[in-house]
Amino acid sequence: MSFRYLLVLTLLVPFLAVADETDAIGLVIDNFHDAAAHGDKDRYLAQMTDDAVFLGTDEWERWPKQPDFVDYVGSRFKNGVGWNYRSVERHVRVSDSGDLAWFDEVVHSEQNGRFRGTGVLVKQDGNWKIAHYAMSFLILNENWNDVIELTKKTMAIKENAESSE
């Protein structure tokens, strides 16, 4: 082998390793979404760490995996039906240590439109697992004031209902 070949190989290997990790992370996230689409509770939850947290779109939706999210997913996927979100854009970064990654993605639901998912993955025993996933609505800037007003009205209704109980 020539010196030039070794030099090129030495320079490329770290980039290839990151690409492999990014692909592996993408497969975990895709499997997470696919399992949800098929209502496959065991496969869905297997993509997450034991201490994972899922943040839904409502302000109260903070679901620690144990026991809250496990119970919710069990009841929601009971008939083999979950929710169907397909990633249409994703950006992944891997830490220098190689055992932590974070991502953001835009996901699409035929029924509900586009959302943003963000998350953190950790590498455990050589496998990537989702430790944190957060989903949020994407709101067009042109609709921002309308959404703010609707949210204020809904919060006032909820507060009035709670105070009259």
Q: Could you give a short description of this structure?
A:
44% of the residues lie in helices and 32% in strands. It has 165 residues and is of the alpha+beta class.
* Structural class label: alpha+beta
| Unreliable residue runs | 12-17
Oligomeric grouping of the chains: single chain
Total domain modules: 1
Estimate percent helicity.
40-55%
Mean pLDDT: 91
- How many beta-strand runs? 6
Please trace the helix and strand order, writing H or E for each element: HHEEHEEEEH
| Inertia-based shape | globular
Architecture per CATH nomenclature, i.e. the level-2 architecture: Roll
Distance between the termini: 80 Å
In percent terms, what proportion of residues is strand? 25-35%
Could you please say which CATH topology applies here? Nuclear Transport Factor 2, Chain: A
Rg over CA atoms, rounded to whole Å, is 20 Å
Could you give the topology of this structure?
Elements: H1 3-37, H2 41-46, E1 48-55, E2 62-64, H3 65-76, E3 86-94, E4 100-109, E5 113-124, E6 127-137, H4 144-163
Parallel strand pairs: 1-6
Antiparallel strand pairs: 1-2, 3-4, 4-5, 5-6
Keywords:
single chain, 165 residues, alpha+beta, Nuclear Transport Factor 2, Chain: A, six-stranded mixed beta sheet, 6 strands
Explain how this protein is built.
The protein has about 160 residues and is α+β, with helices and mostly antiparallel strands. It contains four helices and six strands; from the N terminus they run H-H-E-E-H-E-E-E-E-H. It has helices at about 5-35, 40-45, 65-75, 145-165, and strands spanning about 50-55, 60-65, 85-95, 100-110, 115-125, 125-135. The protein has a six-stranded mixed beta sheet. Strand 1 and strand 2 form a beta hairpin. The model is unreliable at about 10-15 (pLDDT under 50).
